[in-house]
Specification:
Blueprint lengths: L6 E5 L1 H18 L19 H21 L12 H11 L6 H15 L2 H28 L8 E6 L10 E2 L2 E5 H5 L2 H11 L2
Parallel strand pairs: 1-2, 2-4
Antiparallel strand pairs: 3-4
């Protein structure tokens, strides 16, 4: 039996920007003692139906990521959002009283972090060893259960937990938060194994 497969791990700009938006919204709404990143003093306002709009946007983007992951000719290179994509986020999630230019600045603040060494690159490097361990554990579980993977496992990481929608796991594809890599390993392995059946 051949249990060889690979795990492709990438950070999606759109999904991580949505987490950034989610966290800003939650910081405004909850005023917690331990705020989430980013904590901005000058932020944007959100639509009255933000949580429903957010869930729908998350679902659309995770479906798009899944579809892209299934195409073998797609590279793992993830580019900054285009003006059209940024406008799409604005139209769906941001209150119309907020000038579009303010939202562009909000995105630039995200991009300044995400596209530098302290952002995506550091997260990918930090997850590398954990990913190697997860790969070994998955390989052992597949052997135990006499399962043969039919293709590579595609993972998208997000820098924080998704609190306003469900993370997608399906057909050799999963969206995972950094925290999921480090805690509740058995739950994570069961989730990934289910995606590989």
């Amino acid at each position: 039996m051949n249990n060889e497969f690979s795990i492709q791990l990438t950070g999606s700009t759109d999904l991580n920007f949505l987490i950034y938006i989610q966290n800003d919204y939650l910081n405004q709404k909850q005023k917690a003692d331990l705020p989430k990143f980013p904590l901005l003093s000058d932020s944007v306002s959100y639509t009255e139906t933000f949580e429903a709009d957010f869930k729908e946007t998350w679902e659309q983007l995770t479906n798009r990521e899944h579809n892209l992951a299934q195409k073998e000719d797609i590279t793992a290179e993830d580019l900054p959002l285009t003006e059209l994509e940024l406008r799409w986020f604005y139209d769906r999630l941001i209150d119309s009283s907020v000038p579009y230019e303010e939202f562009q600045f909000f995105y630039r603040a995200f991009s300044a972090w995400w596209d530098c060494l302290a952002g995506r690159f550091s997260i990918e490097r930090g997850l590398g060893e954990e990913l190697h361990t997860i790969y070994g554990q998955l390989t052992d579980l597949l052997k135990e259960r006499n399962l043969t993977p039919s293709k590579d496992l595609q993972l998208r990481f997000v820098y924080d937990d998704m609190l306003l929608a469900k993370n997608k796991t399906t057909d050799y594809f999963a969206v995972l938060s950094i925290e999921e890599f480090f805690i509740e390993r058995e739950k994570l392995l069961a989730r990934l194994l289910e995606a590989m059946k």
